[in-house]
Write a structure and sequence with these properties.
Elements: H1 23-34, E1 40-44, H2 50-58, E2 63-67, H3 71-83, E3 90-93, E4 105-111, H4 129-139, E5 140-153, H5 159-162, H6 175-184, E6 188-194, H7 197-217, H8 225-243, E7 247-255
Parallel strand pairs: 1-2, 1-4, 2-3, 4-5
Antiparallel strand pairs: 5-7, 6-7
The protein binds S-adenosylmethionine (SAM).
């Protein structure tokens, strides 16, 4: 049995977001985007739409659009919008982000999705933050707000940390260097925060949980069991013995 035929439980069953983000920090980001209330909210690379749906719940007059290339995530976002009575104000589209030619919105979210405007992650190239920030600049109305979350180096990368990632030291910027790029793109930095190691631990454990859930649901003699166990262990080692404390995540609250 190969990876492509293996059906693991969906990530949304063990993660609230596809990023290291605590409830407290999420509430802070929602408050930044909703005080004052926006009219239009756009989430580029929205995953299953949890943050966008919370913004719409906090801003009952706002309309929102979430875009993600992963159709399973968009299906989940639509189902959650329906469950929360938000379908009349929320639309979700499963399309590549580059196809979005929206008029600018007064509140925009882009968390962990800069690759929309750069090389695909599989190409193992440095993340093109500048291209993402240029594109986002056009999607935010003058005076509008952007929550931009992206991976950074939070400590000097070393070989054990980079090996399970792209293998290169220049894949990410430091937080200071990213802040400079953000300013150069024309945004005002209102606030900036880094995910804590606890947020990372929760995220990584949640990411691996689909493997343990699969193992719990299947007989130890299942032909794929050894492979699932190996994949779990590779992920655990990559994090705990590799990039833990080195790969970081910054959340910037920005004004356009
Ligand atoms: C790290 S996840 C973050 C998801 C979400 N923003 C969150 O914080 O939970 C990155 C998301 O970007 C999406 N993505 C990657 N490339 C994309 C593209 N070219 N167009 C649209 N979405 C893309 C992925 O499917 C994934 O859901």
């Amino acid at each position: 049995m190969t990876d492509s035929t293996l059906e693991l439980p969906p990530l949304y069953e063990s993660l609230t977001w596809l990023t290291p983000l605590s409830e407290e920090r999420a509430a802070h980001l929602v408050a930044f985007l909703t005080e004052p209330a926006p009219a239009e909210v756009l989430d580029m690379g929205c995953g299953w739409g949890e943050l966008l749906l919370r913004v719409l719940t906090s801003a009952p007059q706002a309309r929102g659009r979430g875009v993600d290339s992963a159709s399973a995530s968009i299906d989940r976002a639509k189902q959650q919008a329906s469950a929360r009575g938000l379908l009349d104000r929320a639309t979700f589209d499963s399309i590549p982000g580059l196809e979005v030619q929206d008029r600018p919105a007064d509140a925009v979210i882009c968390i962990g999705a800069s690759q929309i405007w750069g090389p695909p992650v599989e190409d193992a190239q440095p993340l093109d933050y500048a291209a993402a920030l240029r594109a986002l600049r056009d999607l935010v109305l003058p005076g509008g707000r952007l929550v931009y979350g992206e991976a950074i180096w939070s400590a000097t990368p070393h070989p054990a940390a980079t090996a399970p990632l792209s293998g290169r030291d220049d894949e990410f910027l430091t937080e200071d260097a990213l802040r400079e790029q953000i300013r150069a793109a024309g945004f005002e930095v209102v606030d900036q925060e880094q995910a804590s190691i606890q947020e990372w631990d929760v995220f990584e454990a949640g990411y691996r949980a689909r493997f343990t859930r699969w193992l719990e649901a299947h007989d130890a003699g299942h032909p794929a069991a050894a492979q699932v166990l190996r994949q779990y262990e590779e992920l655990r080692a990559a994090y705990e013995e590799g990039y833990r404390g080195v790969l970081g995540m910054s959340y910037f609250c920005l004004k356009g």
